[in-house]
Structure formats: C-alpha cells, structure tokens
Design brief:
Structural class: alpha/beta
CATH topology of the largest domain: Nucleotidyltransferase, domain 5
Number of strands: 10
Strand content: 15-25%
CATH superfamily of the largest domain: ATPase, nucleotide binding domain
Distance between the termini: 32 Å
Strand order of the largest sheet: 3-2-1-4-5
CATH architecture of the largest domain: 2-Layer Sandwich
Largest sheet: 5 strands, mixed
CATH class of the largest domain: Alpha Beta
Number of domains: 2
Radius of gyration: 21 Å
Number of helices: 9
Length: 341
C-alpha cells in the first residue's frame, strides 16, 4: 500500500474547469480555468461551457499535478463531481476521470457538488491547520443555484432542513443586476456598489414562508416593479441611485438568509455555523456572520475566497474522506443534473 494518499479532484459542474491535488488531506494545488465567453450572454451558455471544458481539462489537470509535484502514477484515486450541474459540462469531467482512473488502474470517487461546498471547510493548506467545524454544525449553502440550510452530522451524513422553494439568493442578485444593466455575473458588481450605498435607502417585499425554507422570487419581482415606477419619474434613476439600490438589495437578501439561519440555530441549539457557496464571497453576508458571532455567541466558519466559488479542492477533500471509507464509484455510474445534499 502506498505510504501517502494522493487524491486528484476534478470539478466541471458549470463554467469553471478545476483540478486539485490533496496529499493525506493537505492541499498541494488548486488550479481553475474560468470562462469569460458567457459574459456577453448575461449567463452561462451550456453548449459553450462544455466546449470550453473540453479545451481546458487536459492543461488544467496537467498544471495541477505539476504544481503539486506529483506524478500520475502516485495517485491513489480520482475524485470527480458527478452532479448536480450542467450535463454537458459534467460529462467532460466524468469522462476524463473515468479514462484516467482506468488507465492508472485506480479507483474513482464520485462527489456531490453541494456536499463538496459544505466540506470545503475541511480543506487544510498546512498539516497543522485545525480551524475546522466539529459535528454537528449548521451550514448556510448559498450560490446562484442553491439556497439551503444544511444540518451537517458527519462527513457523509447531511440533512437539508431548509431550502429555496423558487429562486436562489445568488440567482435573485444576478437577475436584479441584469435588470439594472450592470452586467454579469451580478454578485461581485452588487457587492462592490453596495459598499458605497445606504442599505436602508429602499425597502422591498419580503417572503412569508414557514419553517426554514426560503423564497426570493417575490423579492426579485418587488425590485423589478419598484424600479419601473422610479424610472417613470427619472429615466436616469438607476445611474443616480445604483449604490443605494445595490446596498438595499444586498441588505434584504442577507437579512432574509440570516433570519432563518438564526431560527434554526436557536431551535436546534447549535452554535457552530458555517457558510459556503459562491454567495459566501459577498462582503455583506460575511460581515453578518461576524456580527452574529458577537451577538449570539456563534462559532462561525467563513471560507477563503478561493474556496467559495466552484473549485476542485473541495471535490478532492470530499473524495479523500470517501476514499478512507472505501466508498468508491463503479465505472458505469453516469452524471446527474439535479439532486440536493
């Protein structure tokens, strides 16, 4: 048996081609190629995404191995995102992982993309890293496609106790940014503008959803209708007030997210709380977590910016834990587009 466990992680669920290498749970490399081609279309175009993955996957994997100083023959297993995501994009990563694993005669480990985001908190950049949640903990998983509260009981046991019934938080922000003509992706643009605006300048509709579930469709509609009315009075309203609009939108989204998370923490008596997913890069949400740590005595876990977006490091660490359990993936299992954690 090999002295060290080397896991190559491959992520291709959407428009980022990423590869990472982990040795005994410690990250050696994490390489990502993004696709700027989608900006002109205001969203990810699946066919263009899959073509770009085909162009990127070989050089990205090669770069990750070289950066890690690891030969292919040293790999213990290939971990890959099997779903959820765009089928065309997933097929590129899944097919590559199957081919490489077969050629090396090593096992494959399939990873749920959403579980990967949650377990990004266990990525170690140094062997001495100890800043990780202990079980059980709550994780707010927020991205362009998902808004969930996950009760994390172990590396392999996670329960979604609340989720969006319509739009996700990131999707709402992106669509509102598009309506304002600010560009795509909207998250970073809204974040930047919000730092210069008044979060209490405007009020928008808030959903009244029972339990821990979310809804952002009504907020998106309220934002759109309010904007239409204001534009009737001033055709340059957006340009004159974009900072306040961004700040008010961000404030409302974050407040909706945190209210449900607070309730879940109180009901379940869990004060270890993490955030994950693309929207966890948002400055307002990160600040809200710090504020809640001080106000409610939470122990909060906020990922590094490089681990918020889709990345292979989170796939590799999840694959590492599954490898230790000998939870391998049969060669014939296909990719899947939709599922929760």
């Amino acid at each position: 048996m090999k002295d060290n466990i080397y896991i190559l992680g491959i992520e291709s669920s959407c428009d980022d081609t990423s590869a990472a290498v982990i040795r005994d749970g410690v990250l050696l490399s994490n390489v990502t190629a993004s696709q700027a081609v989608h900006e002109a279309y205001g969203g990810v175009v699946p066919e263009l995404a899959s073509r770009a993955h085909q162009q990127n996957i070989v050089p990205v994997v090669d770069h990750a191995l070289k950066q890690a100083g690891v030969e292919r023959e040293q790999l213990s297993a290939i971990a890959f995102t099997r779903g959820p995501g765009l089928m065309g994009s997933l097929h590129v990563g899944v097919s590559f992982a199957k081919g490489l694993a077969a050629s090396l005669g090593i096992p494959m480990v399939d990873v749920n993309h959403l579980q990967g985001h949650v377990l990004a908190h266990f990525i170690k950049e140094e062997a001495s890293d100890r800043e990780q949640p202990s079980f059980p903990f709550l994780c707010l998983l927020v991205s362009g496609g998902n808004s969930q509260i996950v009760l994390v009981k172990s590396y392999k046991e996670m329960e979604v106790i609340g989720q969006t019934i319509d739009d996700a938080a990131g999707e709402c922000i992106d669509k509102c940014s598009k309506v304002m003509g600010l560009g795509y992706p909207g998250g970073p643009i809204i974040d930047r503008l919000a730092r210069q605006g008044n979060p209490k300048a405007y009020q928008f509709s808030r959903p009244q959803i029972k339990g821990y579930d979310y809804s952002f469709s009504g907020l998106k509609t309220s934002f759109l209708y309010s904007l239409r009315e204001w534009l009737k009075e001033d055709e340059d309203f957006i340009e004159h007030h974009k900072e306040d609009l961004a700040a008010s939108l961000e404030y409302t989204v974050v407040d909706i997210l945190m209210k449900k998370l607070r309730q879940a923490s109180k009901d379940l008596k869990i004060k270890q709380v993490a955030v994950a997913g693309g929207v966890s890069a948002n400055s307002g949400l990160r600040q809200a977590f710090q504020d809640h740590a001080r106000r409610y005595g939470w122990k909060v876990y906020i990922p590094k910016f490089s681990f918020t977006t889709d990345n292979a490091a989170m796939i590799a660490i999840t694959g590492y834990f599954k490898f230790l359990d000998k939870d391998f993936c049969p060669m014939e299992l296909p990719a899947y587009s939709r599922v929760t954690v």
